Amino acid sequence: MAETRAEQDVARRRVIYIPGYDPFHPRRYRELYRKESAAQAAISGYEISQHAAKGQGPFAWGVESVVGGARTEAEIEVLLWSDIVKASMNPSIPATYAMLLRTAWTYIASGALFRLMRLRKGPVIAALYPIVFLLGQLLLAVGLGYGAARLGAWALLQLPVPVHLGTTGVMLGIILFVAVTWGVLSWFRKRDNKFFAYYLMHDYSYSARHKGANPPELEARIAAFRARVEEALASDADEVLVVGHSSGAHIGISVLADLMRSGWTQGSGPRLGFLTLGHVVPMVSFLPKADRLRADLHDLCQWDQITWVDVTAPGDGCAFALCDPVAVTGVAPEQGKRWPLVFSAAFTQTLSPETWAKVKRRFFRLHFQYLCAFDRPGDYDYFLITAGPLSLGTRYAERMPSKSRIETPASRYTSRAA
User: Fold this and answer.
1) Cβ-based neighbour number of residue 210 at 10 Å
2) What secondary structure does DSSP assign to 190-234, as a single string?
3) How far apart are CA 279 and CA 123, in angstroms?
4) Helix %, strand %, coil % for the chain, to 5?
């Protein structure tokens, strides 16, 4: 239900959105927001409109809402790291298979794969999918290549002039084998927008390449993101809300942990909120060199200057649903842990049976459901959170965490030292 005007504590908001491992242009998020916010407003009975945000660059837009008579303005900005993602997705086919072997070895040798599987099987199956699918492609390609080589040898023997399968036959066999094998692998690669095997392989490989440590280009971008948050906190907004989706969640954790350690305090400035959606934090924090992320989790969970809310759903097979990222990583302090508030978006309850039937097997679509409209929204409404009249802290001040949340430590690396 929409709030009444008396419940307003935010008239102006700055939203800073950190996407996951996504090579697409930020305009995708702007258009998704425009379409889905209109749908949610029609379902829930409030008004919302979108317009250009002057002076905020090409990756930002303005939103105005009227909820129960309360008018709120928001500026939403997408922080860009898709260029880093694209650069990491350029390897050739042979390089991708080398990445497959390296990534699998990293997760298996460190024991992370088995610990992750005990935590949640869904995202681990999603991680194993590209390995199995790429190996299947390779076996099919090699099989067809071998068949083509044998067929070529048979064709030579059918020539009216007797042919001995010497050097000529061997060369023809090699040419046919390589051409068919490469052709099949290239066919799959060109159609990866349907299979997502290469995309997911590059995603998991990006974290595993440095065994959980941030590569230099990502550390530099985290520093730039922190500067954008600091600029927003110096504005006249009532709230600055940082949103991290999927892999963007652990990037946001590091951004805000750096801000915390800089000594920032609210004072008379905007409230600071942090919303993590569909997180995959354990895929990184369970790796042997993720000391930086583990320290950030340990420190940020105690900060009294922030409201941190974590929303996942068991229906999202790509996320570690209801897993408290601090607790399961094993870095929660003995005393003083405040965050995050963990609860479920409960897709099976907040989506109608008709909608659920359409999307329940579309795993990537479900991973983005947090940014979309709900047929039966409960107390999670992305558009009220980002453009409505209540701050994140006020909205969830009385919200209890989900009883089915997972807090049992599962990582073997519990050090908080960076």
Assistant:
1) 16
2) HTHHHH-HHHHHHHHHHHHTTTTSPPHHHHHHHHHHHHHHHHHHT
3) 10
4) 50, 15, 35
The tens digit of pLDDT for each residue in 329-373 reads 999 999 999 999 999 999 999 999 999 999 988 888 999 999 999
DSSP 90: -
- The rounded distance, in Å, linking the Cα atoms of 390 and 273 is 11
Look at the block and give the residue holding tokens 């995309």.
199
**Cα dihedral 118, 120, 122, 124 in deg (nearest 10):** -60
Q: pTM of the prediction?
A: 0.92
Quote the distance between the C-alpha of residue 317 and its chain's center.
12
Query: How many CB atoms neighbour CB 387 within 10 A?
Result: 28
The structure tokens 């906190």 sit at: 233
Two structure tokens written together for 108: 């298996």
| pLDDT tens digits along 44-84 | 999 999 998 776 666 899 999 999 999 999 999 999 999 99
Structure tokens at 218: 């990502």
Q: Whole-angstrom Cα distance, residue 367 to residue 25?
A: 18
- Rounded CA separation 282/320 (Å): 8
Q: Report the C-alpha dihedral over residues 247, 251, 252, 255, rounded to 10 degrees.
A: 180
Identify whether the C-beta of residue 418 lies closer than 8 Å to the C-beta of residue 295.
yes
